Amino acid sequence: MIVAFSVTPLGVGEDVGEYVADAVRVVRESGLPNRTDAMFTSIEGEWDEVMDVVKRAVSAVEARAPRVSVVLKADIRPGVTDGLTSKVETVERHLSA
Questions:
Q1: For residue 34, what are the CA distances in angstroms to 15, 56, 66, 70, 94?
Q2: pTM to 2 decimals?
Q3: Between 79 and 64, where is the model more confident?
Q4: pLDDT above 90: residue 81
Q5: What is the side-by-side order of every strand in the sheet holding 2-10?
Q6: Alpha-carbon span 90 to 45, nearest angstrom
Q7: Which of 18, 27, 76, 83 has its CA 20 to 30 A from that of 12?
Q8: Are 9 and 67 in contact (CB under 8 A)?
């Protein structure tokens, strides 16, 4: 399963980078495959372990912000591993053809 999510602290002003870094730090320390871009962090693993990491990432932001917004999208596909890499490689292969 791959989950793409974003955690946005509300009520802390416009500069939210340090709060988002708290969430990303939790994801990176989880040891699960992950990737962060300008809009989302994607993480790959089994349902319970991925959701636990998302919950802890939200909690890290919630500890410092009065309100938190979360956007989450999940690709649940049993038996597929390394989807973070293989899905991108498939698109790149089609682009180079």
A1: 24, 15, 27, 17, 23
A2: 0.90
A3: 64
A4: no
A5: 34-36, 41-44, 2-10, 67-75
A6: 20
A7: 27
A8: yes
- For position 92, what pLDDT does the model report? 93
CB of 3 within 8 A of CB of 77? no
The residues that bridge with 41 in the sheet, in sequence order, are: 5, 36
* H helix runs in 30-82, sequence order: 47-62
Q: Alpha carbon of 24 to those of 55, 89, 90, 93: distances in Å?
A: 12, 24, 26, 29
What are the structural domains, with CATH classification, of the chain? 1-94 (3.30.70.930)
Integer Cα distance of 80 and 72 in angstroms: 20
